[in-house]
Design brief:
The chain is α+β, with helices and mostly antiparallel strands and about 90 residues long. The chain is built from four helices and two strands; from the N terminus they run H-H-E-E-H-H. The protein has a two-stranded antiparallel sheet. A hairpin with a 5-residue loop joins strand 1 and strand 2. The longest helix is centred in the last third of the chain and has 12 residues.
Length: about 90
């Protein structure tokens, strides 16, 4: 087994996380809701908060690392694809 896989499999929960009190724990209970999109609220010490919205995972396209180095953000990907679309013959 590779070191990377072994590291992922190791239990890295902190000792203070006592999960023995959970009744009927279910792995992946919120997986489908997560894939459909979600928001995360970040609370700061000064009392302010930020809400981050994450889109449906069905709308996410993952770039391979060798491609990603040429397209650092969504704008660059979209601009390139729009220029390629212009080259496709219209039916």
């Amino acid at each position: 087994m590779s070191d990377k896989i072994q590291d992922e499999l190791e239990d890295n929960l902190r000792e203070e996380y006592d999960l023995s009190q959970l009744k009927n724990p279910v792995r992946g209970k919120y997986y489908q809701q997560y894939r459909e999109g979600h928001s995360v609220t970040i609370h700061y010490e000064d009392g302010t908060k930020t809400i981050e919205h994450f889109p449906s995972q069905n709308d996410v396209i993952i770039l391979d690392p060798d491609v990603k180095k040429y397209f650092p953000n969504s704008e660059s990907v979209n601009a390139t694809l729009r220029s390629l679309i212009k080259l496709i013959p219209q039916q």
